[in-house]
Amino acid sequence: MNSRSIFPAFLLALTVLSPGLAVPAAAQLDRHKLPGRQVRVAAICIGFGGDHDEKLKLATDHLHTAGKNGVDIACLPEECAGTRAEPIPGPTTEAVARLARQYRMYVICPIREQAGDEQYNTAVLIDRQGRLVGRYRKVFVFWGEGLHCSREGARVFETDFGKIGILTCFDLNFPELWQQCDALDADIVFWPSAYSGGAPLNAYAILYHYYIVPVGVGNIIDITGETLQDVEKPRDRQFIATLDLDRSFMHVDFNREKVNKLLAEHGDEIEAERVPPTSPSDPRAPWWLLRATKPGVRVRKLLKEYGIETLREYQQRSREQINERRKKGERV
Fold first, then answer.
1. Least confident residue range of 7-16, 190-199, 224-233, 302-311
2. Do 167 and 117 sit in the same domain of this protein?
3. What is the average pLDDT value for the chain, to the nearest integer?
4. Three-state SS across the chain?
5. Looking at the domain assignment, is residue 3 inside a domain?
6. Which residues contact 264 (CB under 8 A, 6 or more apart)?
7. For residue 280, what pLDDT is reported?
8. 216 and 255 part of one domain
9. In this model, does residue 104 exceed pLDDT 90?
10. Is 157 in the same domain as 304?
11. Residues 211, 106 share a domain
12. Model pLDDT, residue 27
Protein backbone atom coordinates (compact mmCIF):
# COMPACT_ATOMS: atom_id res chain seq x y z
CA MET A 1 0.00 0.00 0.00
CA ASN A 2 1.13 3.61 -0.51
CA SER A 3 1.75 6.15 2.22
CA ARG A 4 -1.85 7.36 2.02
CA SER A 5 -3.30 3.90 2.68
CA ILE A 6 -3.60 3.14 6.39
CA PHE A 7 -4.96 -0.26 7.38
CA PRO A 8 -4.70 -1.40 11.02
CA ALA A 9 -2.44 -4.40 11.46
CA PHE A 10 -4.78 -6.01 13.94
CA LEU A 11 -7.55 -6.12 11.33
CA LEU A 12 -5.25 -7.83 8.84
CA ALA A 13 -4.35 -10.41 11.48
CA LEU A 14 -8.01 -10.92 12.29
CA THR A 15 -8.96 -11.67 8.70
CA VAL A 16 -6.02 -14.06 8.24
CA LEU A 17 -6.53 -15.97 11.47
CA SER A 18 -10.33 -16.01 11.34
CA PRO A 19 -11.45 -15.93 7.70
CA GLY A 20 -15.02 -16.90 8.55
CA LEU A 21 -15.48 -14.23 11.25
CA ALA A 22 -17.55 -11.15 10.50
CA VAL A 23 -15.78 -7.91 11.28
CA PRO A 24 -17.52 -5.77 13.94
CA ALA A 25 -17.76 -2.01 13.50
CA ALA A 26 -14.88 -1.47 15.94
CA ALA A 27 -12.49 -3.25 13.56
CA GLN A 28 -12.98 -0.69 10.82
CA LEU A 29 -10.81 2.39 10.48
CA ASP A 30 -10.94 4.65 13.53
CA ARG A 31 -10.84 7.91 11.65
CA HIS A 32 -10.42 9.96 14.83
CA LYS A 33 -7.01 8.36 15.43
CA LEU A 34 -5.70 8.68 11.86
CA PRO A 35 -4.34 11.58 9.81
CA GLY A 36 -6.86 13.22 7.54
CA ARG A 37 -10.20 11.57 6.80
CA GLN A 38 -9.69 7.95 5.81
CA VAL A 39 -12.27 5.68 4.18
CA ARG A 40 -11.96 2.16 2.78
CA VAL A 41 -13.82 1.52 -0.47
CA ALA A 42 -14.39 -1.69 -2.40
CA ALA A 43 -15.17 -2.05 -6.11
CA ILE A 44 -16.79 -5.44 -6.69
CA CYS A 45 -16.37 -6.00 -10.42
CA ILE A 46 -18.43 -9.14 -11.02
CA GLY A 47 -20.00 -7.95 -14.25
CA PHE A 48 -23.30 -6.67 -15.54
CA GLY A 49 -26.47 -8.79 -15.66
CA GLY A 50 -26.69 -12.58 -15.67
CA ASP A 51 -28.85 -15.13 -13.89
CA HIS A 52 -30.42 -13.51 -10.84
CA ASP A 53 -29.85 -16.27 -8.30
CA GLU A 54 -26.29 -17.02 -9.39
CA LYS A 55 -25.30 -13.37 -9.49
CA LEU A 56 -26.91 -12.58 -6.15
CA LYS A 57 -25.03 -15.47 -4.55
CA LEU A 58 -21.77 -14.21 -6.07
CA ALA A 59 -22.50 -10.64 -4.96
CA THR A 60 -23.24 -11.63 -1.36
CA ASP A 61 -20.13 -13.80 -1.25
CA HIS A 62 -18.07 -10.80 -2.35
CA LEU A 63 -19.75 -8.62 0.26
CA HIS A 64 -18.65 -11.09 2.94
CA THR A 65 -15.08 -10.62 1.69
CA ALA A 66 -15.39 -6.84 1.70
CA GLY A 67 -16.87 -6.83 5.18
CA LYS A 68 -14.12 -9.04 6.58
CA ASN A 69 -11.58 -6.60 5.14
CA GLY A 70 -13.01 -3.66 7.07
CA VAL A 71 -14.56 -1.84 4.13
CA ASP A 72 -16.61 1.29 4.86
CA ILE A 73 -18.47 1.22 1.55
CA ALA A 74 -18.70 -1.45 -1.15
CA CYS A 75 -20.13 -0.91 -4.63
CA LEU A 76 -21.59 -3.64 -6.83
CA PRO A 77 -21.74 -3.26 -10.65
CA GLU A 78 -24.55 -2.02 -12.84
CA GLU A 79 -27.65 -4.28 -12.63
CA CYS A 80 -25.52 -6.61 -10.54
CA ALA A 81 -28.08 -9.42 -10.20
CA GLY A 82 -29.54 -9.56 -13.68
CA THR A 83 -32.03 -7.52 -15.67
CA ARG A 84 -35.24 -8.81 -14.10
CA ALA A 85 -37.00 -5.78 -12.65
CA GLU A 86 -38.00 -5.73 -8.99
CA PRO A 87 -39.34 -3.16 -6.55
CA ILE A 88 -37.37 -1.28 -3.91
CA PRO A 89 -37.25 -2.76 -1.34
CA GLY A 90 -37.18 -6.18 -2.97
CA PRO A 91 -35.38 -9.53 -2.82
CA THR A 92 -31.99 -8.22 -3.96
CA THR A 93 -31.87 -5.12 -1.78
CA GLU A 94 -33.10 -7.08 1.23
CA ALA A 95 -30.36 -9.72 0.83
CA VAL A 96 -27.69 -7.04 0.43
CA ALA A 97 -29.07 -5.01 3.35
CA ARG A 98 -28.57 -7.96 5.71
CA LEU A 99 -24.85 -7.97 4.91
CA ALA A 100 -24.56 -4.20 5.16
CA ARG A 101 -26.00 -4.49 8.66
CA GLN A 102 -23.85 -7.51 9.58
CA TYR A 103 -20.57 -5.80 8.64
CA ARG A 104 -21.61 -2.24 9.48
CA MET A 105 -20.74 -1.01 5.99
CA TYR A 106 -22.49 1.00 3.33
CA VAL A 107 -23.33 -0.84 0.10
CA ILE A 108 -24.30 0.53 -3.30
CA CYS A 109 -26.58 -2.06 -4.91
CA PRO A 110 -27.51 -1.34 -8.56
CA ILE A 111 -30.62 -3.14 -9.81
CA ARG A 112 -33.33 -2.84 -12.44
CA GLU A 113 -36.11 -1.11 -10.52
CA GLN A 114 -39.84 -1.65 -11.02
CA ALA A 115 -41.50 1.60 -9.91
CA GLY A 116 -45.21 1.29 -10.66
CA ASP A 117 -45.52 1.15 -14.44
CA GLU A 118 -41.98 2.45 -15.00
CA GLN A 119 -38.60 0.74 -14.93
CA TYR A 120 -35.25 2.35 -14.12
CA ASN A 121 -31.59 1.44 -13.95
CA THR A 122 -31.21 2.29 -10.26
CA ALA A 123 -28.35 2.24 -7.76
CA VAL A 124 -29.62 1.86 -4.19
CA LEU A 125 -27.56 3.17 -1.26
CA ILE A 126 -27.82 1.06 1.89
CA ASP A 127 -26.33 2.32 5.15
CA ARG A 128 -24.45 0.57 7.97
CA GLN A 129 -27.71 -0.34 9.69
CA GLY A 130 -29.09 -1.99 6.56
CA ARG A 131 -31.48 0.86 5.81
CA LEU A 132 -32.25 1.98 2.26
CA VAL A 133 -31.23 5.64 2.46
CA GLY A 134 -30.92 6.76 -1.14
CA ARG A 135 -31.18 5.89 -4.81
CA TYR A 136 -29.78 7.18 -8.06
CA ARG A 137 -31.69 6.49 -11.27
CA LYS A 138 -29.57 6.50 -14.41
CA VAL A 139 -30.03 9.75 -16.29
CA PHE A 140 -28.64 8.75 -19.69
CA VAL A 141 -30.00 5.30 -20.41
CA PHE A 142 -28.08 3.46 -23.12
CA TRP A 143 -29.81 2.78 -26.47
CA GLY A 144 -31.77 -0.45 -26.30
CA GLU A 145 -31.95 -0.83 -22.52
CA GLY A 146 -35.70 -0.34 -22.74
CA LEU A 147 -35.81 1.66 -19.51
CA HIS A 148 -37.12 5.03 -18.41
CA CYS A 149 -34.69 7.92 -18.00
CA SER A 150 -34.37 9.59 -14.64
CA ARG A 151 -35.90 13.03 -14.26
CA GLU A 152 -34.07 13.64 -10.96
CA GLY A 153 -30.58 14.47 -12.24
CA ALA A 154 -27.32 13.80 -10.41
CA ARG A 155 -27.57 13.25 -6.68
CA VAL A 156 -25.10 13.28 -3.80
CA PHE A 157 -25.64 11.45 -0.52
CA GLU A 158 -24.37 12.18 2.99
CA THR A 159 -22.56 9.35 4.79
CA ASP A 160 -20.73 9.29 8.12
CA PHE A 161 -17.39 9.72 6.29
CA GLY A 162 -18.28 12.22 3.55
CA LYS A 163 -20.45 12.93 0.53
CA ILE A 164 -20.75 10.42 -2.31
CA GLY A 165 -22.18 10.70 -5.79
CA ILE A 166 -23.31 7.83 -8.02
CA LEU A 167 -23.38 7.88 -11.81
CA THR A 168 -23.95 4.86 -14.04
CA CYS A 169 -22.21 3.57 -17.17
CA PHE A 170 -23.41 5.66 -20.19
CA ASP A 171 -23.59 8.71 -17.90
CA LEU A 172 -19.82 8.85 -18.48
CA ASN A 173 -20.38 10.69 -21.74
CA PHE A 174 -22.24 13.67 -20.32
CA PRO A 175 -20.00 16.14 -18.46
CA GLU A 176 -22.90 18.08 -16.97
CA LEU A 177 -23.61 15.19 -14.58
CA TRP A 178 -20.02 15.16 -13.34
CA GLN A 179 -20.09 18.93 -12.89
CA GLN A 180 -23.32 18.57 -10.91
CA CYS A 181 -21.57 16.15 -8.54
CA ASP A 182 -18.85 18.77 -8.09
CA ALA A 183 -21.43 21.49 -7.40
CA LEU A 184 -22.97 19.22 -4.76
CA ASP A 185 -19.53 18.79 -3.10
CA ALA A 186 -19.04 15.06 -3.70
CA ASP A 187 -15.92 13.60 -2.11
CA ILE A 188 -16.18 10.37 -4.12
CA VAL A 189 -18.17 9.46 -7.22
CA PHE A 190 -18.96 5.78 -7.64
CA TRP A 191 -19.49 4.62 -11.21
CA PRO A 192 -21.11 1.16 -11.53
CA SER A 193 -20.69 0.13 -15.15
CA ALA A 194 -20.50 -2.63 -17.71
CA TYR A 195 -17.06 -1.48 -18.90
CA SER A 196 -13.88 0.30 -17.74
CA GLY A 197 -14.55 3.88 -18.88
CA GLY A 198 -10.94 4.77 -19.59
CA ALA A 199 -9.36 8.21 -19.81
CA PRO A 200 -12.51 10.37 -19.39
CA LEU A 201 -12.79 9.17 -15.79
CA ASN A 202 -9.22 10.23 -15.06
CA ALA A 203 -9.99 13.63 -16.58
CA TYR A 204 -13.11 14.12 -14.46
CA ALA A 205 -11.19 13.20 -11.29
CA ILE A 206 -8.52 15.88 -11.73
CA LEU A 207 -10.96 18.43 -13.14
CA TYR A 208 -13.38 18.18 -10.22
CA HIS A 209 -10.98 17.10 -7.45
CA TYR A 210 -12.91 14.05 -6.26
CA TYR A 211 -12.04 10.38 -6.18
CA ILE A 212 -13.75 8.13 -8.73
CA VAL A 213 -14.45 4.48 -7.97
CA PRO A 214 -15.33 2.73 -11.25
CA VAL A 215 -16.99 -0.65 -10.82
CA GLY A 216 -16.22 -2.15 -14.20
CA VAL A 217 -12.63 -3.36 -13.98
CA GLY A 218 -11.54 -1.79 -10.67
CA ASN A 219 -9.45 1.14 -11.95
CA ILE A 220 -9.87 3.31 -8.82
CA ILE A 221 -8.82 6.90 -9.54
CA ASP A 222 -7.12 9.39 -7.25
CA ILE A 223 -8.05 13.09 -7.01
CA THR A 224 -4.85 13.77 -8.97
CA GLY A 225 -6.40 12.00 -11.98
CA GLU A 226 -3.99 9.08 -11.67
CA THR A 227 -5.18 5.48 -11.48
CA LEU A 228 -4.15 4.07 -8.11
CA GLN A 229 -1.55 1.33 -8.37
CA ASP A 230 -1.33 0.10 -4.79
CA VAL A 231 -4.83 -1.36 -4.57
CA GLU A 232 -5.60 -4.41 -2.45
CA LYS A 233 -7.06 -7.44 -4.23
CA PRO A 234 -8.39 -9.85 -1.59
CA ARG A 235 -9.87 -12.03 -4.34
CA ASP A 236 -10.43 -12.05 -8.07
CA ARG A 237 -12.51 -9.08 -9.28
CA GLN A 238 -12.53 -7.24 -5.96
CA PHE A 239 -10.45 -4.08 -5.46
CA ILE A 240 -10.05 -2.23 -2.15
CA ALA A 241 -8.40 1.13 -1.55
CA THR A 242 -8.04 3.45 1.43
CA LEU A 243 -8.78 7.03 0.40
CA ASP A 244 -8.04 10.19 2.38
CA LEU A 245 -10.95 12.56 1.82
CA ASP A 246 -9.16 15.37 3.67
CA ARG A 247 -6.44 15.83 1.03
CA SER A 248 -7.00 19.26 -0.45
CA PHE A 249 -6.05 21.28 -3.50
CA MET A 250 -5.77 25.05 -3.35
CA HIS A 251 -4.98 27.57 -6.07
CA VAL A 252 -1.98 29.87 -5.94
CA ASP A 253 -4.28 32.87 -6.54
CA PHE A 254 -4.50 34.99 -3.36
CA ASN A 255 -3.11 32.13 -1.27
CA ARG A 256 0.67 32.02 -1.60
CA GLU A 257 1.53 33.90 1.60
CA LYS A 258 -1.17 32.19 3.66
CA VAL A 259 -0.24 28.68 2.51
CA ASN A 260 3.46 29.29 3.08
CA LYS A 261 2.64 30.50 6.60
CA LEU A 262 0.50 27.42 7.26
CA LEU A 263 3.27 25.10 6.06
CA ALA A 264 5.90 26.91 8.13
CA GLU A 265 3.81 26.65 11.29
CA HIS A 266 2.43 23.13 10.81
CA GLY A 267 5.18 21.37 8.86
CA ASP A 268 5.26 18.58 11.44
CA GLU A 269 1.53 17.86 10.91
CA ILE A 270 0.91 18.32 7.19
CA GLU A 271 2.92 18.09 4.01
CA ALA A 272 2.67 19.38 0.46
CA GLU A 273 2.34 16.50 -1.99
CA ARG A 274 2.41 19.00 -4.83
CA VAL A 275 3.47 22.64 -5.00
CA PRO A 276 2.78 25.34 -7.62
CA PRO A 277 5.33 25.97 -10.35
CA THR A 278 7.78 28.82 -9.85
CA SER A 279 8.33 29.49 -13.55
CA PRO A 280 5.82 30.41 -16.29
CA SER A 281 7.36 27.69 -18.47
CA ASP A 282 6.56 24.97 -15.91
CA PRO A 283 3.56 22.99 -17.25
CA ARG A 284 2.25 21.96 -13.82
CA ALA A 285 -1.07 23.35 -12.58
CA PRO A 286 -0.73 26.33 -10.19
CA TRP A 287 -2.00 24.34 -7.21
CA TRP A 288 -0.89 23.00 -3.88
CA LEU A 289 -2.03 19.56 -2.72
CA LEU A 290 -1.82 19.15 1.04
CA ARG A 291 -2.36 16.13 3.27
CA ALA A 292 -2.22 15.52 7.00
CA THR A 293 0.59 13.35 8.39
CA LYS A 294 -0.24 13.35 12.11
CA PRO A 295 -3.16 11.44 13.69
CA GLY A 296 -6.13 13.64 14.43
CA VAL A 297 -4.98 16.47 12.15
CA ARG A 298 -7.30 17.74 9.41
CA VAL A 299 -6.09 19.88 6.51
CA ARG A 300 -9.59 21.29 5.95
CA LYS A 301 -9.77 22.54 9.54
CA LEU A 302 -6.40 24.28 9.24
CA LEU A 303 -7.39 25.88 5.95
CA LYS A 304 -10.39 27.48 7.63
CA GLU A 305 -8.22 28.72 10.50
CA TYR A 306 -5.88 30.41 8.02
CA GLY A 307 -8.66 31.77 5.80
CA ILE A 308 -7.66 29.64 2.79
CA GLU A 309 -10.20 28.42 0.23
CA THR A 310 -9.90 24.98 -1.29
CA LEU A 311 -9.62 24.94 -5.06
CA ARG A 312 -13.22 23.75 -5.32
CA GLU A 313 -14.46 26.55 -3.05
CA TYR A 314 -12.50 29.10 -5.08
CA GLN A 315 -13.88 27.84 -8.38
CA GLN A 316 -17.46 27.62 -7.14
CA ARG A 317 -17.37 31.10 -5.56
CA SER A 318 -15.79 32.57 -8.68
CA ARG A 319 -18.42 31.00 -10.91
CA GLU A 320 -21.27 32.35 -8.80
CA GLN A 321 -19.89 35.85 -8.33
CA ILE A 322 -18.70 36.35 -11.91
CA ASN A 323 -22.04 35.10 -13.27
CA GLU A 324 -23.84 37.56 -10.98
CA ARG A 325 -21.74 40.46 -12.26
CA ARG A 326 -22.39 39.29 -15.82
CA LYS A 327 -26.14 39.51 -15.21
CA LYS A 328 -25.79 43.04 -13.84
CA GLY A 329 -23.45 44.14 -16.62
CA GLU A 330 -20.74 44.93 -14.06
CA ARG A 331 -17.00 44.65 -14.51
CA VAL A 332 -15.10 41.93 -12.71
1. 7-16
2. yes
3. 92
4. CCCCCCCCHHHHHHHHHCCCCCCCHHHCCCHHHCCCCEEEEEEECCCCCCCHHHHHHHHHHHHHHHHHCCCCEEECCCCCCCCCCECCCCHHHHHHHHHHHHHCCEEEEEEEEEECCEEEEEEEEECCCCCEEEEEECCCCCCCCCCCCCCCCCCEEECCCCEEEECCHHHHHCHHHHHHHHHCCCCEEEEECCCCCCHHHHHHHHHHCCEEEEECCCCCECCCCCECCCCEEEECCEEEEEEECCCEEEECCCCHHHHHHHHHHCCCCEEEEECCCCCCCCCCCCEEEEEECCCCCCHHHHHHHCCCCCHHHHHHHHHHHHHHHHHHCCCC
5. no
6. none
7. 87
8. no
9. yes
10. no
11. yes
12. 59
pLDDT digits (tens, 9 = 90+) for 63-97: 999 999 999 999 999 999 999 999 999 999 999 99
Find out whether 213 and 43 touch, Cβ atoms under 8 Å: yes
C-alpha span between 62 and 239 (Å, rounded): 11
**Which pLDDT score, from 0 to 100, does residue 32 have?**
74
Domain extent, residue 222, equals 9-244
Final residue belonging to a domain, choices 244, 274, 305: 244
Whether 303 and 321 share a structural domain? yes
Domain shared by 255 and 230, yes or no: no
pLDDT digits (tens, 9 = 90+) for 263-321: 999 999 999 999 999 888 999 999 999 999 999 999 999 999 999 999 999 999 999 99
**175 and 318 part of one domain:** no
Number of domains in the chain: 2
pLDDT of residue 20: 37
How far apart are alpha carbons 101 and 105 in whole angstroms? 7
Q: Are strands 232-235 and 211-215 parallel, antiparallel or unpaired?
A: unpaired
Instruction: Quote the percentage of the chain above a pLDDT of 90.
Output: 88
- Of 128, 111, 146, residue with least CA distance to 71: 128
pLDDT single digits (tens) 18-32: 333 444 444 577 777
CA angle 307, 310, 311 (to 5 degrees): 135
Residues 131 and 264 in one domain: no
